[in-house]
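User: Sequence recovery, please. Input:
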């Protein structure tokens, strides 16, 4: 029985909503229960940072350093241990001293003989923090301050009688490294210990309920999380998913950088806002993600959203600032700067998954008795509502990187080998064109049907968990998080609606990342692109052949004009002439997209788009007519004109938008989805994945013809490459397998089509008002999104959406199956779309 047939057998009682998706097959219970009371060492999440640096180089140079001074934040483990104080630190050959100011003539507040320092190690209490442990036996520090003596404090080593700790936090990562190098070089008990090579650094990753912050993460990730609306509860529910979306997000935005090397990537030195500021160079600066994020950064202080949600502990209470910590993901990276120094664990191999594939699941019975994707929907979604997403992956035993969900997908090797490599290798159908992640300017979200709903969405509540959960993950060089973006708390309604198109390299330089990931190499040189364009474009000035009437729209790559054809151009081949006369003649209206090539970040995308359009003649695909290279730099692409505009326009301008009704009726939705589905099936039959299906990319004309456009990100599946892995698309429409960076196929378009159905029902895709990062998290963890008002909808449309929005790709319908779905029986005729199209008049 086909999936759609199966779905049609579900009774109304069983099925009030479309979600959630069936559990991924073969996943057992997660072992990620977090026990707050576990000792730190046991709970330690481990980020293995493998670094190699020239042996002793840092120490060598510090050896020659007579005296090192600088401002730091300082805290001890004594009475006032909750306070970080600004101190001027001086390191000379005998002492490490802390002064109240830089007039070192005054008495120091703390002076520690270097002979008493028994250990120095990186610490996660604060950004750029390290801990100095001094031994009591040798402790002969003089102190003029109770804060400095730490007399009532206990050392954190568990040996409080004999050891004491202080914590130092220089301003930047670089300063930290330089202090560490200097201290290591001067302390006799640490001497002989040159700067380590190839060590593994274990740090703790988790969520600190006291501060409401994520801790132990690369600082850029921490910042990202702070400003997203990913909460401690989200982390507790599915920390692996949080990590996945973080990776995805940074890769997607092309700000890869070098998170494992905070000295390079230190967000405080290179705040993501650099990216934002530079984002103004983007064509449409008003809405682009960088701008958004810039605004957010300036408006949200360093404490961030999450931190604000927690009242600070009363000052007199001795509060352990050491967060509860999770058993730790393994984050293996190479970093060229010292991270530190509980020296010299060799890099260890850790399992990538909390569980292995053999955890009692047979690929043959992925669902056990539940092979209907929605059999358990109500119950599960109810649980999810009741307990946040408690049920989501703890119960399913979700394992990052595991591919059980997609039986076709190969087990990914590592993220790096997949995403970065694929990213550069992703080729267009004909060109071998590299397809980068998109970075479009973003467009304001459409007005949802009910303003109340929007307002409700804005009131984000935070139910922060009190503990951390554990996650295991592994990073390699290309997976490093980087300083990235922040969002405006005041701008929750400006989500990323369009796919980014910015090339990686450009974004990265904007991001202020001094060391970049290997840049995505364009697969075609300029000369090759021009040669290719010359084969599809006429080298003519098209001006005499068209009357330009008005501007019809603005895209990221250029403006679209309505024009009237005066005559057909000469120089058309006979075939072109035949085609053209069939499709467009003198007097016809056409759409002309004008692009300045030198301003295109990725010209190959344009070539890709033209070639796909040219080769894809179908009633549900916007027809390419001809292209002109007016000059070497001025490209005109002539297409059939779609007077009705985009489906987004239609939804936004629907007469019923703003009321409690759906912008479109179910019969209208059935009609539009069916037509889109015809276009998609045509593409899929040619093994082309569109990868950016959404209402913006579906155009209508006055005869209610529905056509797919925007083919820049199409990908061709071949026998050799029957799956893709590149991150392409627009977040809110992305299928979970894309967000989770699994290999995917043409069924990602079916998911997006389902999301487009929700747009027509509800005015917007799910999670549109969420921070993009949070939206990615929700896509990854929620599975099939829930409808806002399922009780008002027909069983047919819910069944239809359920087979589009099925997380398990095996059970997601193909376009061919969809075309037989009974939902389409309720499709209206083209005349019933007239009220929707009248907004243009
Ligand atoms: N063939 C067409 N007929 C009528 N209007 C069109 C046509 N193509 C595009 N438009 C209008 O122009 C706008 C911009 O289209 P375009 O394809 O350039 O958008 P984009 O996908 O955002 O940008 P780009 O493809 O450059 O990344 C559309 O939103 C639509 O309103």
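Assistant: Recovered sequence (841 residues):
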């Amino acid at each position: 029985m086909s999936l759609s047939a199966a779905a049609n057998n579900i009774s109304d009682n069983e099925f009030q909503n479309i979600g959630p998706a069936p559990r991924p097959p073969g996943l057992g219970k997660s072992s990620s229960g977090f026990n707050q009371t576990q000792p730190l060492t046991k709970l330690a999440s481990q980020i293995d940072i493998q670094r190699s640096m020239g042996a002793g180089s840092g120490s060598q140079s510090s050896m020659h350093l007579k005296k090192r001074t600088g401002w730091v934040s300082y805290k001890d483990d004594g009475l006032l241990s909750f306070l970080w104080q600004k101190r001027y630190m001086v390191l000379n050959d005998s002492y490490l001293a802390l002064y109240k100011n830089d007039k070192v003539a005054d008495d120091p507040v703390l002076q520690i003989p270097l002979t008493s320092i028994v250990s120095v190690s990186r610490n996660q209490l604060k950004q750029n923090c390290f801990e100095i442990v001094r031994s009591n036996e040798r402790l002969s520090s003089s102190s003029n301050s109770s804060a400095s003596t730490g007399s009532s404090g206990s050392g954190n080593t568990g040996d409080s009688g004999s050891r004491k700790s202080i914590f130092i936090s220089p301003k930047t990562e670089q300063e930290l490294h330089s202090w560490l190098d200097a201290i290591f070089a001067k302390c006799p008990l640490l001497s002989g210990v040159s700067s380590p090579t190839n060590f593994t650094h274990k740090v703790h990753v988790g969520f600190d309920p006291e501060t409401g912050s994520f801790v132990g993460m690369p600082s850029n990730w921490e910042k990202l999380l702070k400003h997203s609306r990913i909460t401690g509860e989200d982390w507790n529910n599915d920390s692996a998913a949080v990590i996945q979306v973080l990776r995805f997000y940074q890769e997607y935005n092309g700000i890869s950088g070098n998170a494992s090397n905070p000295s390079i990537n230190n967000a405080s030195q290179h705040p993501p806002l650099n990216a934002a500021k530079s984002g103004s160079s983007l064509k449409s600066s008003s809405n682009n993600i960088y701008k958004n994020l810039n605004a957010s950064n300036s408006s949200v202080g360093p404490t961030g959203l999450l931190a604000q949600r927690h009242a600070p502990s009363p000052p007199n209470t001795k509060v352990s600032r050491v967060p509860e910590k999770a058993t730790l993901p393994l984050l293996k990276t190479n970093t060229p700067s010292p991270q530190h120094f509980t020296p010299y664990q060799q890099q260890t191999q850790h399992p990538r998954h909390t569980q292995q594939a053999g955890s009692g699941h047979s690929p043959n019975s992925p669902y056990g008795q539940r092979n209907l994707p929605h059999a358990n929907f109500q119950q599960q979604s109810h649980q999810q509502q009741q307990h946040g997403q408690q049920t989501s992956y703890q119960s399913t035993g979700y394992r990052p990187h595991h591919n059980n969900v997609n039986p076709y997908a190969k087990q990914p090797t590592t993220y790096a080998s997949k995403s970065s490599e694929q990213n550069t290798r992703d080729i267009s159908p004909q060109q071998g064109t590299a397809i980068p992640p998109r970075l479009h300017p973003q467009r304001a979200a459409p007005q949802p049907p009910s303003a109340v709903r929007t307002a409700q969405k804005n009131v984000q509540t935070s139910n922060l968990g009190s503990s951390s959960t554990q996650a295991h993950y592994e990073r390699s060089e290309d997976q490093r998080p980087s300083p990235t973006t922040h969002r405006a708390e005041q701008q929750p309604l400006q989500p990323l609606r369009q796919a980014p198109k910015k090339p990686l390299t450009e974004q990265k330089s904007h991001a202020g990342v001094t060391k970049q990931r290997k840049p995505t190499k364009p697969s075609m040189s300029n000369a090759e692109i021009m040669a290719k364009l010359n084969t599809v474009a006429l080298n003519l000035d098209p001006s005499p052949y068209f009357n330009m009437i008005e501007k019809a729209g603005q895209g990221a790559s250029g403006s679209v004009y309505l024009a009237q054809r005066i005559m057909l151009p000469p120089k058309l081949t006979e075939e072109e002439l035949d085609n053209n006369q069939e499709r467009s003649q003198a007097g016809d209206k056409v759409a002309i997209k004008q692009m300045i090539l030198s301003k295109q970040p990725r010209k190959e995308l344009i070539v890709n788009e033209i070639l796909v359009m040219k080769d894809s003649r179908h009633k549900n695909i916007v027809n390419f007519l001809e292209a002109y290279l007016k000059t070497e730099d001025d490209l005109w692409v002539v297409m059939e004109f779609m007077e009705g505009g985009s489906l987004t326009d239609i939804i936004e301008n629907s007469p019923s938008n703003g009321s409690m009704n759906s912008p479109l009726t179910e019969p209208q939705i059935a009609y539009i989805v069916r037509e889109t589905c015809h276009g998609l099936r045509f593409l899929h039959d040619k093994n082309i994945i569109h990868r950016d299906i959404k209402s913006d990319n579906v155009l209508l004309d006055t005869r209610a013809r529905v056509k797919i456009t925007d083919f820049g990100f199409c990908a061709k599946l071949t026998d050799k490459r029957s799956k893709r892995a590149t991150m392409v698309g627009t977040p809110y429409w992305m299928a979970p397998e894309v967000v989770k960076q699994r290999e995917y196929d043409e069924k990602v378009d079916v998911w997006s089509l389902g999301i487009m159905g929700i747009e027509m029902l509800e005015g917007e895709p799910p999670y549109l008002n969420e921070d993009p990062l949070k939206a990615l998290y929700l896509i990854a963890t929620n599975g099939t999104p829930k409808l806002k008002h399922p009780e008002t909808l027909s069983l047919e449309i819910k069944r239809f959406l359920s087979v589009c929005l099925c997380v398990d790709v095996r059970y997601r319908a193909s376009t061919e199956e969809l075309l037989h779905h009974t939902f389409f029986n309720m499709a209206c005729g083209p005349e019933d779309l007239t009220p929707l199209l009248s907004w243009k008049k």
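The mean pLDDT is 64.
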